[in-house]
Specification:
With 398 residues, this protein is of the alpha+beta class. It has two domains: 14-291 and 373-387, no CATH class; 293-371, no CATH class. The protein is built from ten helices and 19 strands. The protein has helices at residues 46-49, 70-73, 84-96, 101-111, 175-178, 183-186, 227-230, 293-311, 332-345, 355-371, and strands at 12-20, 25-27, 35-37, 50-59, 75-79, 115-118, 122-129, 135-139, 165-166, 189-191, 194-196, 201-211, 217-220, 231-237, 250-256, 264-266, 274-279, 285-287, 374-387. Strands 5, 6, 7, 8, 12, 17 and 19 form a seven-stranded antiparallel beta sheet that branches. Strands 1-4-16-13-18 form a five-stranded mixed beta sheet. Strands 2-3-14-15-9 form a five-stranded mixed beta sheet. It is globular, with a radius of gyration of 22 Å. The N and C termini lie far apart (45 Å). It binds fe (ii) ion. Residues 161, 165, 167, 285 line the site of fe (ii) ion. Fe (ii) ion is lined by residues 161, 165, 167, 285.
């Protein structure tokens, strides 16, 4: 097949991240002295509002990278491997490809009250998982819509986020209504027009990768953000997927302008034994397409075509697949997945090999295709950042 599949340690990839277009910036109508990005309908063309900019995205799991830090950088990873029943549950959700009410209940039960060590001698105690915001996302390689007819509901059918964004303005809807304006005083936050650096109470997103060989999450080291210049208020319409009263029909969130000083991070092989916790109140994040995903998409579509032919009882003829080299900066897990898919394309069973050989091949092809679909779960959590000493850290997950 001529694929260059030498796995190696990569420290960074060059990737396109989606930022607000400078021409979309307007003044804010509220008297906060901030900038705002124009809201367009959810189905409007992505590139009308956003522009792709090339960024270096560093793999924080590579040797020599500094440790993450929730309070300094806006995000950090926590270790979930020690919660065995949670790991079983996450495997089940990954295989099912969706999350049901019962799984959501179990997730909440397993995580509420858990305490995780953080950098800087701190720990994070999860107090409450918000009723809204527990969702599962799925996205195909290179932006491929794997299930175009799937309808978006409260918890399922969400595509992978394309644009860099921050989830919630501490002074905005719906937090303003839910907490009657007290959120900025109660929650620790860094907002362009004022911070609360004293409260131990935080609102964090917990983001669990079920699998992310493709379209990984990237997060910005927030200490490299010039918030006054590059953080924009943005009213996200929610009426297509949330049933809310009229005064809460938007989410006041954030989008961002690109700047060369911003530093971005991802993890090339994170699985659900780890999760990110990041500041819901403004930490910039989004997904991106890894170099080489276009090749994964190509083999995904080839395998899909052959599977359909075999299921119809036809012989699946492999097309002559043009040999393509992977970019040298592609990640080792993506290389392995592409190698597996390429191998399956060239070993499709012939008619005289019989039905059992076809069944085995179909199973392997489905698994290989599924492996390059990004799946993740996220939830909003009210938590406390406390010193990592007894009795504050009682119940510490180790
Ligand atoms: Fe988000």
């Amino acid at each position: 097949m001529g694929l260059a599949l030498e796995p190696g340690v990569i420290n960074e990839v060059e990737a396109q991240l989606g930022f607000s277009r400078p021409e979309e910036v307007t003044g804010d109508h509220e008297d906060r002295g901030l900038k705002r990005a124009t809201t367009r309908p959810l189905d409007s063309e992505f590139t009308q509002q956003f522009e792709y900019r090339s960024c270096k995205v560093r793999d924080w799991s590579a040797p020599g990278e500094a440790a993450l830090n929730l309070q300094k950088m806006g995000f950090e990873s926590i270790d979930l491997a020690g919660i065995e029943k949670l790991q079983t549950l996450l495997s089940q959700i990954r295989e099912a490809g969706e999350i049901g009410l019962q799984e959501a209940r179990h997730l909440r039960r397993r995580l509420t009250g858990a305490v995780f060590p953080l950098a800087g001698g701190k720990c994070l105690k999860l107090l409450n998982i918000a009723p809204e915001g527990l969702i599962m996302r799925k996205g195909g390689p290179n932006g491929l819509k794997i299930d175009p007819d799937l309808k978006m509901t409260g918890m399922n059918g969400h595509d992978v986020a394309l644009a860099v964004h921050g989830d919630q303005d501490v002074r905005g809807t719906p937090l303003k209504q839910i907490m009657r304006g007290f959120a900025p005083r109660l929650f620790r936050h860094q907002t362009p027009d004022g911070a609360n650096n004293f409260s131990p109470l935080v609102l964090v997103n917990m983001w669990i990768p079920l699998q992310q060989i493709t379209r990984p999450l990237t997060l910005m080291d927030r200490s490299t953000l010039n918030a006054r210049e590059h953080q924009l208020r943005y009213a996200l319409p929610t009426d297509s997927f949330l049933d809310r009263s009229e005064d809460m029909s938007v989410n006041d969130s954030w989008t961002f302008l690109h700047d060369d000083a911003q530093q971005w991070y991802f993890h090339s092989h994170m699985t659900h034994d780890q999760a990110y916790v990041f500041d819901t109140l403004g930490e910039p994040h989004g997904s991106f397409i890894l170099p080489g995903e276009d090749i994964a998409e190509h083999y995904y579509l080839e395998l899909q075509r052959m599977c359909n032919q075999l299921r119809l009882g036809e012989s699946a003829k492999p097309r002559v697949i043009t040999a393509r080299d992977l970019p040298s900066t592609s990640t080792a897990p993506l290389r392995r997945a592409i190698e597996t898919m390429a191998g399956l394309c060239s070993s499709v069973p012939l008619e005289n090999q019989g039905q059992p050989a076809v069944e085995v091949w179909l199973t392997r092809a489905s698994e290989a295709m599924d492996s390059v679909v990004r799946k993740s779960i996220e939830m909003r959590v009210v938590a406390l950042v406390l010193p990592n000493v007894w009795p504050f850290n009682r119940g510490l997950v180790s």
